[in-house]
Sequence to fold (163 residues):
Amino acid sequence: MTDCYYSGTNYAESMVNWLPYKLKELGRANLLDDGPFVDFGCGLGTVIAEFQKKYLDIQFIGIDRDQRCLDEARKIVLPNTRLLRAPLNQTSLEDDSIAIAFSHKIYQLCNEENYSAIAEEIHRTLKRGGVYCASEPMQDYKHPFLELGLVPIYEDQSIIFRK
Fold:
């Protein structure tokens, strides 16, 4: 086993129910059909694996800097999942290419300079109208996203920004 971050199956299952519900409530349900769905800091791949049980037709991409995490993720995600080893602030994703960006507790592990760079990367890769869901309290981390022009459309224990 590895020391990679594990979101937990119960958490991942709850996100599969909560995020689509919240996107529908916010008038953004179509994003789940558009894809791709990118998990920044995918760890062991539990969130992607759970989403793939319900959403077989969209492309999923997991990004993590630790090859050991990606090797473990590969064991539970569908074979067509694209897993990329990269720093979260320097991915090989194209500009304006993703509909949904997601992360879970990545900012607690970063310094301010790094999470600003991650915010820039997420902003660069999101399609216009796309959303970024940060599943963590963001009061200390949201200012780089606001400076880039992302608009918070939901905020509680998680925050959803729209580009």
Q: What stands out?
A: Residues 2 and 48 are 18 Å apart (CA to CA).
